[in-house]
Amino acid sequence: MPTMLTDVEIRVLGALVEKQLTTPEYYPLTLHSLTVACNQKNNRNPVTAYDENTVAHALETLREKSLSYVFHGSSSRVPKYKHVMPEVMHLSSPELAVMGALMLRGPQTVGELRGSASRFHEFSGLEQVEATLNELISKEPESMVVRLPRQPGQKDARFVHLLSGPPSPEFLAEVEAHSKTSQPRLGESDKVEKLQLQIEGLKEEFRILQQQFAEFKKQFE
Questions:
Q1: 108: number of Cβ within 10 Å
Q2: Which domains does the chain have, with CATH numbers?
Q3: Taking burial as the number of CB atoms within 10 A of a residue's CB, which of 121, 184, 218, 219 is the most buried?
Q4: pLDDT of 86-142, one tens digit each?
């Protein structure tokens, strides 16, 4: 990928991918819903605390890089946001699933990706996950994923995306430290995410009703 992405851009883009694939009924996302998605504690490594201004700036720079755009639907006056990652990067459904998992949860083994990426795409087994990783590694004109050196005491190597460029020595040191701790479990995360988006959707509908009532009231003033 010729244009490198920042950490904030990667989190925003990853959150858009996740919500499109796991809760399509609430996609595209408002700025507020997207900020909540970026900062949720489950299925995130690291956990962040971005404010809406930070997310809005990342959306603008992603738009300049042709990776996101504003969607103005007929049923809502609140702007919503969509991504075009598979179109721009020429990704298949399995490739998008693996990239989304790596963007949101950081370096992972094939087995870990089988669990995290299966939320986005139904893989037939570890072999398909590994084949998808190999396809991303051999992408033209540039690789999108790299296999990290296996850490001492670790049975399996981890993979990381290259949207921010090659891993730095500092990053590799963090991976080694993180490999000594267990990955967070998926648990009931999907149910929590869906409930959060339902709440945000109801809030948006209420705001729209308030606006419509205010306009209606003005007719009699």
A1: 23
A2: 1-89+185-215 (1.10.10.10), 91-168 (1.10.10.10)
A3: 121
A4: 999 999 999 999 999 999 999 999 999 999 999 999 999 999 999 999 999 999 999
